[in-house]
Amino acid sequence: MGILNLTEDSFFDGGKYTNTNLALKQVEKMLNEGAFFIDVGAATSKPGSKLISAAEEYKNLIPILEVLLKTFPEAHFSVDTYNSEIAKESLIRGVSMINDISGGEIDRKMLKTVAAFKVPYVMMHMKGITKYINQKPHYADITSEIKSQFIEKIQLAEAVGISDIIIDPGFGFGKTVAHNFQLLNEMSVLRDLRYPLLVGVSRKSMIYKTLNLNPETALNGSTALHAWALDRGSSILRVHDVKEAKECVDLFIALQ
Question: Would you call 153 a catalytic residue per the annotation?
């Protein structure tokens, strides 16, 4: 899954793809490098960020999304949003999947909206809201707590008719660096939930803080964690660097 950020303030590539021509070139590049999904987001979710309105998100997302869908009709586009109104507008236009960082917590209409379109739903775990997300998060046992919360959320999603669910443990969302590594190490436990696992660790702080780097120099570390994520059961890697991630996937498949 290649990431296309249409925001000015994304933690790694903010402002790089905020106009249609730049977005088109990046999507073409990621598809050529082997991306199956393109995850398009117009609302930053980095720690400390504020939630934005559906109206603001619509303005930043929909005009570019419409061009992308028309230009790449065979591609599988996902929209990264926590607003049910944006999910609906995106799905009407032909998007294949919704990726919700809050798992339906921010907008209670999200689950029914997704269910009405019979599309896959990425359900992420997030502790708190983005503005205060990493202010002293605490878990007695992070992996078991997240698993229990997913069981509850899955039941809610299934009850409204969502049958194609993807689980995202939410690395970096309300978790310390130590929490993230424990969760990654124990992630195979989440396979008991019977749904595919998506991992998004690309260039995140668990990598660059551990290695004393920055997001721009965290590609090698990202690739290393992608390999370990695959080994622990990840079915989808959400990445900024498709070529390197696809090579990691291909080598992992060969290893099997």
Answer: no
The model's pTM is 0.93
**Within 160-218, where are the H helices?**
177-185, 205-208
| Superfamily classification of domain 2-255 | Dihydropteroate synthase-like (3.20.20.20)
| Domain layout of the chain by residue ranges | 2-255
End-to-end C-alpha distance for the chain, whole angstroms: 21
Strands 2-5 and 234-237: unpaired
Token pair 């690309």 in the structure block, residue: 202
Query: Tell me: the pLDDT tens digits for 173-189?
Result: 999 999 999 999 999 99
From 203, 232, 238, 246, the catalytic residue: 238
d(CA 22, CA 79): 18
Active site residue 232: no
What pLDDT does 129 receive? 64
C-alpha of 223 from chain center: 17
Read off the pLDDT of each residue in 54-82 and give the average, rounded to a whole number.
97
- The catalytic position among 175, 204, 232, 246 is 204
Dihedral of CA atoms 179, 185, 189, 195 in degrees, nearest 10, equals: 90
- Please name the helix (run of DSSP H) or strand (run of DSSP E) that holds residue 80, with its range, or none: strand 76-80
Q: What are the CA-CA distances from residue 52 to residues 64, 81, 102, 161, 244 (Å)? A: 18, 10, 14, 28, 32
pLDDT tens column, 46-62: 666 688 899 999 999 99
* Residue at token pair 């393109």: 38
Has residue 45 got a pLDDT over 90? no
